[in-house]
Input
Amino acid sequence: MKKLFIILCLLVPLSVAAESGIARAWKKFDNWLLRSQLMGIDTNYVQLPKLNHQVYIGSYTYWQGYQMNMPFFMEDASTILPGIKDKDHYRLNAYTWQGEIELGLDWKGLALELPIPIYNNYRYSLGLAKNGSIWGARFRYKHLRQMDGNCNLGDLSLNNDKNNINIFFIEGYYVLMHKKFSLSAGLYADMVQRRSAGSPLIYLNYYHSSYNLKDLFPANYDSFRTNQVSLGLGYAYNLSFLQGRLVFHASVVPMFSIYNHLKHRVGHSSTFFTSREQNEEAKAAAKAASGLTEEQWNAFYNAADNGSARFRVNAFARFAVNYSFNRFIVSFLANYRHYAYSNDLNLQIRNQEADMQFNFCVRF
Output
């Protein structure tokens, strides 16, 4: 009993200290979120709502498009791929529609998106955003396993057994005229834009896509991975009515690539996350299974395995409208994003995505 008493005497203060430490850390974090909302604003134009938290439910419709044009430099191509002429291009057009119900929590500008798929089930999808008066950031990841479409060789139709895509991006923004303009007020209504105002925006964006093909190229499995870093310079405007109860938002941001890279891998899907040596072994096995000579293989994949990336201009645009009924908000949000890759061997990849979302929010 004495030992038990001593252990309890030691554990109780430790647990209390841990709880108080967590509470202090949460309080600091919560105060930091509030300061980031209030920092540098002119309250004649932008105000904090009395109820500064939101929970929302919305309907979300999403379109993803992936187009690729890859030249190959091989002779007697039709003997390997029937119907293809020498020095032709491999042209692929894949797309998908996705619908979901989305649950969200906005805690002083920190927004978590939790999608519930209705049709075209995907494996993973998650979004997180931090909105502030001066700066903010957003993260989004999704894995789409059902892509339809067509190509000009092999099996002319695409389906979920033939291809899938992973999309990931993270971006940060800075509002130059943040005293009078609030990006989060126009997009999410977690601030109040009392008077109309606009501002130039600066964005830094990292975008990754991984498009995976099965049984459409000479290899039994191909993966095309693009990584891009872009700097964006754009403009946004909030048109405000009724002291900020009704707000229309529009923004356009051209994105200028400062880093572009394409990685092409072949083999079975399980080999994509192994060492370089194992990937080389998988590549050698894929070559042997394809029946192509080393020269034919290199001629077909030359544009994907070699070449220097070109400078590209990407872009995204948004439109939103929201109306506040004190505790309740009704909103509509539309986005369009365009990311492109090309190299000096004329391989071209274009990622496009567009979405529309209707939300019903409750402030608390």
In short: The chain has four helices and 16 strands. Residues 145 and 164 are 5 Å apart (CA to CA).
